[in-house]
Design a protein that fits this description.
The protein has 157 residues and is mostly helical. The protein has two domains: 92 residues, no CATH class; 53 residues. The protein contains nine helices and no strands. Helix 1 crosses helix 3. The mean pLDDT is 90.
Length: 157
C-alpha cells in the first residue's frame, strides 16, 4: 500500500502511466518510490534519466523481484542505465559486481567479521558486525537477511 504522499506524487508525475503498467507485476511501493524519488534525485544531480528506456526499468524491477540484487543499489543501476542506455540491467550487475551473493558467501563474510569482534558486548558487537558486513556486501544482500544471520550467530554463543 502506498502512503498518501507517495500516491499523490506518482499521480502528479510524468511516470503515472508507467507506474500503472509496472505496479501490476511488481511491488507498487518500490516502483513508485523509484520513479518518484530515485529518478528525481538523479535528475537533480544532472544525470540524464530521460535516456533510460522503459524496457530497462521493467528489467530492473523484474530482476529485483527475482532477488538478484537489493533495493539499495537501484539508484546506482539507474545512474549506469542513464549513462549507457544501451546496456541491460543484467550487464550492469555483472560489470559492477552487484549481483546478489550466495548464502554460503554471505555466511563466510559474516563469520570473518564475527571473528574480528570477539571482545564486544552482544549489542555493540551486533552493530559493529552489521556495519562492516553491509559495507562489504554493498547492496548484494538485504539488511534484513544479514541482520537475521548475525542474530542467529550471536544467539548460538
Amino acid at each position: 500500500m502506498l502512503s498518501s504522499e507517495l500516491a499523490e506524487q506518482i499521480l502528479k508525475s510524468e511516470y503515472l502511466e508507467l507506474f500503472e503498467k509496472l505496479s501490476k507485476s511488481y511491488d507498487p511501493k518500490l516502483v513508485a518510490s523509484t520513479l518518484v524519488n530515485d529518478i528525481k534525485a538523479l535528475r537533480r544531480e544532472g544525470v540524464p534519466v530521460k535516456q533510460i528506456p522503459e524496457e530497462r526499468l521493467e528489467e530492473l524491477f523484474a530482476l529485483h523481484a527475482q532477488k538478484r540484487f537489493g533495493k539499495e543499489i537501484i539508484p546506482i543501476i539507474l545512474r549506469r542505465l542513464a549513462e549507457n542506455p544501451a546496456s541491460s540491467v543484467e550487464e550492469i550487475l555483472k560489470s559492477e559486481n552487484m549481483e546478489k551473493i550466495s548464502e554460503a558467501e554471505l555466511e563466510k563474510i559474516i563469520k570473518e567479521v564475527f571473528e574480528k569482534y570477539p571482545y564486544l558486548y552482544k549489542e555493540k558487537r551486533f552493530s559493529a558486525i552489521m556495519g562492516e558486513v553491509m559495507s562489504r556486501v554493498r547492496g548484494r544482500a538485504s539488511g534484513t537477511e544479514v541482520a537475521e544471520k548475525i542474530k542467529k550467530m550471536l544467539n548460538a554463543q
